[in-house]
Description:
The protein has 281 residues and is an alpha+beta fold.
Amino acid sequence: MKNISVGQKIVFSEGGKNERTKQNFLGNIHAYRRQMAEVRARGVIIKQSDYGEGHRMLTVFTAEYGIVKAVSYGVKKTKSKSASSQFLCYGDFTFYKSSNKDIMTVNNIDTLDGFYPICEDIQKLSLCVYFADITYNLLGMNNPDERILHMFLNSLYALAYKEDGTQKVKTVYELKLMCAGGYMPSIHSCASCGSAAVTAFDLLKGGMVCAACGGKYLVKMDKSLFNALSYISSCEDKRMLSFNASADIIDRMNALTEQYISLQLDQTFQSLDYYKTILKM
């Protein structure tokens, strides 16, 4: 059967060979649809890229299926469909999934929130691209994690509609993401020997260490920095931004958490470099 693009209009003339061709074509279409399962999920678009002529490849972080990929066909030809297929669009998705393909097809998106104030602020937008990168790197494909999804959405909400600064939201999401992803740092005892006499945070060992154990990648601690680290690590997710800290502490926390992610995941992120460039402008 000849490949037909989604949305392409097919015209058959009546009678004879063309009528048989039409029936064969419709039969093939029905057989193809029977192989497709309808999948419904609530999620947020964390990546988008052009796909062929007029189409868009979406990476969607869903509650039910984790991070999935889907093609939105003809998205550039329809203004309403294009708006709902943008980065950070949060909504209810209907996909078609073939049994022999990992990439799904977007059938419909009912938008719940577009977080449009973020899209109008290059600093916040670049930060969200970084958030998407570290989330994707940590979770990978098809690994559902509603806790991390909720933290991601709460961070978007704070950036879009609240007065929390980007640097505060950044360091909090970085650390809470690592905690939720299995990299909970040891805070009140030495990560090496268990001693309670901790003096510094070791980025590679993943926690506080005592003076005797030490380490190679140490961040010296004072009471204010330790309290911020302890609060963010242990607080309820819904209260992760409910604290006050000086600009100096927020800056020092940012240096700690971004290095912690880089060392623990053994990965550097160009999106972080870009965000920091924008931050300096």
